[in-house]
Amino acid sequence: MTSQRRVELEQVIGEVAASYGAGRLIDSLSSAQLPNKRQVIEALNHLKAVMYLGYYSTGSLDESKLRFALASHLYPAYDILVEQIGHAASYEGFRSAGVPRDQDWPETVTVALLRKVPAIRALLSKDVIAAFQGDPAANSVEEVIFSYPSIEAITTHRIAHELYRERVPMLPRIMAEHAHTNTGIDIHPGAEIGESFFIDHGTGVVIGETCVIGNNVKLYQGVTLGALSLARGVPGKPGARRHPTLEDDVTIYAGATILGGETAIGKGSVIGGNVWLVDSVPPGSRISYEGTRPS
To answer: Tell me, what CATH number does 103's domain have?
Structure first.
């Protein structure tokens, strides 16, 4: 770098530093430590490796190496999550009244999450089978785990949802949006999703925070399970559900939009492509774009 370029760069640094004096929300230089996004994603990757250990391993594994291989992921995941949950809670308390928490709360929450890993793995096993059985193009379970965006998205969701339930600030959304970036599937960590869930293709799927999805549900690309528009600050029912309910064994085809917290899709219903629904339909309904009345 020439001396002239160095002078110019120093001028740029000064101009950027001066831009932090405008009092905007993005200008905060608070001593409260924010979570580190890269660290949160690193912890998530360790947990994903635990879910599918043989698929993430770079060497051969057997029973004698299992505990060591798991420990190589669970110990760093624990350390990172305790630190990052602590930062998130500290910053939440700085920004607002926050939620009163004990000093050891980050450790308690992290251990609780790790204890749920066997149960999460059991759910993911059913999700993988649902994907394999639900897609004639799937050549093997291994192909599904390695390459299907829905498995990436639901794996992340099942982890992030547990942190959301514990009211961990920021981390669940960081994880969810990381999966969104990688897969094109946008699942809010608050959504409740049952067993054997499969999203075929996946791009453009949106699942809102208060969605409740039953067992054996299948979605195609471009499906939106959203909320009716309500501007921030407009009075509404505190804690009211904003997003729809899908009962067991529902299939929703590409491009369908289902909106509203009082909208329920009955068990075993099939919603056709590009349908727009803001009303509930009874079990066993068949809804098509040409006529959106229950049949």
So the answer is: 1.10.3130.10
| Cα 149 to Cα 158: distance, rounded to the nearest angstrom | 14
Three-class DSSP category at 275? coil
3-state secondary structure of 96: coil
Strands 224-226 and 286-287: unpaired
**Which one has a higher pLDDT value, 219 or 97?**
219
Quick: pLDDT tens for 21-67.
Answer: 777 777 776 655 789 999 999 999 999 999 998 887 767 777 778 88
Secondary structure E strands in 150-263: 186-187, 192-193, 198-199, 206-207, 212-213, 218-219, 224-226, 245-246, 251-252, 257-259
- Cβ atoms within 10 Å, residue 290: 7
pTM of the predicted protein model: 0.89
pLDDT of res. 242: 94
Q: Tokens in use for 134?
A: 């639900």
Rounded to 5 degrees, φ, ψ at 264 are: -125, 135
Facing residues of 265 across strands?
Answer: 246, 281
Q: Which domain holds residue 93?
A: 32-185
**Do residue 154 and residue 243 come from a single domain?**
no
